[in-house]
Specification:
The complex is a heterodimer of chains A (364) and B (387). With 364 residues, chain A is an alpha/beta fold. Chain A has twelve helices and 13 strands. In chain A, the strands form three sheets. A nine-stranded mixed sheet of chain A has the order 5-4-6-7-3-10-11-12-13, sandwiched between helices. Helix content of chain B is 36%, strand content 20%. In chain B, the strands form three sheets. In chain B, strands 4, 5, 6, 7, 8, 11, 12, 13, 14 and 15 form a ten-stranded mixed sheet that branches. In chain B, strand 13 and strand 14 form a beta hairpin. Chain B is globular and about 75 Å long. The chains are: A alpha/beta (364), B alpha/beta (387).
Amino acid sequence: MQRDVASFAFAPAVKVRLISAGFLTAKDIRDLRPTELSKEAGISQQEALEVLQEVRRGPAEQGAAESRLTALELLEREQALCTVITFCSALDQALGGGVPMGKTTEICGAPGVGKTQLCIQLAVDAQIPGCFGGMGGQAVYIDTEGSFLVERAVDVATAAVQHCTLITKDTEQREALQSFTVETVLSQLFLFRCHDYVELLAQTHLLPDFLSQHPKVRLVVIDSIAFPFRHSFEDLSLRTRLLNGLAQQLIQIASQHSVAVVLTNQMTTRIGQNQSMLVPALGESWGHAATQRLILHWEGKHRFASLYKSPSQREATVPYQITPLGFRDVQLPDPSVTPADPSPTPGRYSRKRPRGEEGDPSDA
Amino acid sequence: MANKKLRRTGMLPELCDRLDRHQIKTCQDFLSLGPLELMREAGQSYQQVQTLLHTVSLACAPTMVTALELRDRQSHVFFPTSLRGLDAVLHGGLASGTLTEITGPSGCGKSQFCMMLSVLATLPRTMGGLDSSVLYIDTESAFCAERLVEIAQNRFPKYFSLQERVVEMAQKIHLFRELTCQNVLKRLGGLEEEIISKKAGLVIIDSIASVVRKEFDTSIPGNLSERSSLLSQEAATLKYLAEEFSIPVVLTNQITTHLSRKGTAPSHLECNVPEGKESPVSADGESGYVTAALGNTWSHSVNTRLIVQYLDSQRRQIIVAKSPIAPFSVFNYTVQNSGLELEDGENQAGSSHQGTDPGLQPIRVRTAFNYCLTHTTPTSSHSTGVH
């Protein structure tokens, strides 16, 4: 344990005094008594005690517990993690079952394309009971734009509950349905309204504690992470630094508490040589922050979702639509069903169970 | 709560003094720094800095509310616009606590719509109003008090037959004329106090685009981002006011020509293609079409976008282009003595699950100026001819 004194997390003044008194490595300090250390280094006895406690802690306690895993252990862990379905089977397939837990997913898109709608759908879907293919968890929704309207959440929740009621087959599902009602869905959706980036930073600092107190939370949505950072920032380097810090914290939260973190981003206009294009906002370095990136865009009258960055899935583009029931597949015109019929056909949506179990075959 | 002083967060006073000397006075200053800088400035160890961050975060983080509580609080009132088809699609009307934008070419009826909404807001709740006063910020001098009275008396003839009611309604509408960006910002800054003192239930800004476009020439580099930043700031202030007081905020916007490469202009939108008129094509193959002004960032900032456009010489259309609740819908209307009137029946273009990017939606402008040589003599200055 030849660790340098300078690398410990002591207060700067204490560090300076220790080094100038000649204590350069941990070995020099370890065997002293607090009173001796305080006299030699000229620090108070309380500080000396804290220094000794820090130095004597074994390497396993110094926060290195998480970092060593074999790939086999990681594989087992990954298979145990579920995904949050989106109710659009094409998108679920492209994402490998849905939005993954333990990772951060970024959703970019032009205004009005459906980012908030997808977020509301995910917040409801995270609460679908396990026997229907969901996770039976709670959801945290951090709103920075004010686009969360509770009436819309009521519509989406009602449609999801009705869908599950239609496909109930056995007693286990019927029992689960007792606790899956619109009221319970709404009561397990935790909302935070952040008006600026300071409140967002503060809330992210407090999120680990909140998640420890509410261990059933499986989804954290931040809609949107771009809006508070796009104004009143003259110093762009400060913005980059804060965003990077935020991204790191969110990745840590995602993996430590096994939640799926979803961030929404906006688009900005970049002036090219002779045309302007829409690219995701917040700069190039932000592109590295999220593990997965989904871009929602318009092609003419239709909406498409493209998976642009993913460590395990390949790039794909799928169509989707927003209906009064929420985020859905584009229903191809079926001659037996009139176009005005909004009810979802049972069995059309693949109900993704955790990997390793037999899932229902999705529609061909 | 970003400006909360550190002294009030429960931090030790000596620590607050020490941070004060380094110009760290509010929660915003504290949270904008990284842990190493905080260790240096506060003279604390890493663990202690984490505890301090926790304390400061607790002081300025928002409180949690579940969706169920939000629904039961019923603080979300929808303000009916009295255009029945539009209200039905919007779940009741303009949502309070959000920004609604009305954009379109000149002369289409945006200011008329705003004046009509002002009248509606002053009506008692039994008649579908908000029973409150209105703050109207006018940057184009388009507000006409006579027209306001005309709309009121024609739309609700029985209610406004008494002169006192007209006077009462007119007294509840507070007009502010601002002609520069600085003045608009200052007015927005003081709006909170106005809302409280005058018990306002509706804020209208007509229009937010004119001052900004006058003062920011986007061809000069740097101006575009500065303009976007200013607009985002205004949007954030307005959103805060809308939510804090649970009132709807209505803004109007202008139009601009969007130049794109030939073939990428969305000309295949059936209900919006100009009859027989192609978009102007310039010499090097670029075609342009008209769309909402103020750019893409602004399209993100508003919650609802209503586009008004011309259909033919008499009729106009109102399109719900962006809404968190409503699908893409189109309604036909005309402007009359009593304000806007929707056409009912089969002429409605209807709603669909498709739509377009509300920032790129082409808007049809007036293609011909029909000088109204009709045989009905106009009885007021705003008659729009026969139909």
